[in-house]
Amino acid sequence: xxxxxxxxxxxxxxxxxxxxxxxxxxxxxxxxxxxxxxxxxxxxxxxxxxxxxxxxxxxxxxxxxxxxxxxxxxxxxxxxxxxxxxxxxxxxxxxxxxxxxxxxxxxxxxxxxxxxxxxxxxxxxxxxxxxxxxxxxxxxxxxxxxxxxxxxxxxxxxxxxxxxxxxxxxxxxxxxxxxxxxxxxxxxxxxxxxxxxxxxxxxxxxxxxxxxxxxxxxxxxx
Length: 222
Fold this sequence. Notes:
Elements: E1 3-8, H1 12-23, E2 28-34, H2 37-47, E3 51-54, H3 64-74, E4 79-84, H4 89-98, E5 102-105, H5 110-121, E6 126-127, H6 129-150, H7 156-166, H8 171-178, H9 182-196, H10 201-210
Helix pairs in contact: 2-3, 3-4, 7-9, 7-10, 8-9
């Protein structure tokens, strides 16, 4: 089965080179070409390609990222690869947010580009190795924000008590360690369970460990 491709680049020579390279493969067919974002959307809607290979920076007021976003809204089954000279962190993030499933630098070798287009057409995502760290950092930061949000309603003292609960300490032991009354600790524990939406200490401890309370609990007061 043929892989139908639309090429988007404002340089005709680049498009011609890509077309010759791709159509030398028996399963690639270039069904359309465009030199700006508006044309890219038009070509995509006309030909419903499997893959759009698009430069990020295009003339005419619409970037490749904006065109990608519109194509994704109109043709969610079409895959978009950004083929660009720019290894910029924010461009990678914007491309991913727009729905691109590939971000490949133009310095890529011919064989690798062909492999990437095939991979994308089969539902895989491809990112130039130079930009992988950017996306991994974003995923890591998002996970940390999600973890921290679990504890967002807890006060620093409640966080200290929850950390001690995770260690298996009883209300009496926590009271002695933090110089609090046992009844006060009991009230704190009730508030913690309520804020975390759990019914007992064991569930609170499991939730806390799962979300790495050790990263967020404040130090014990001297």
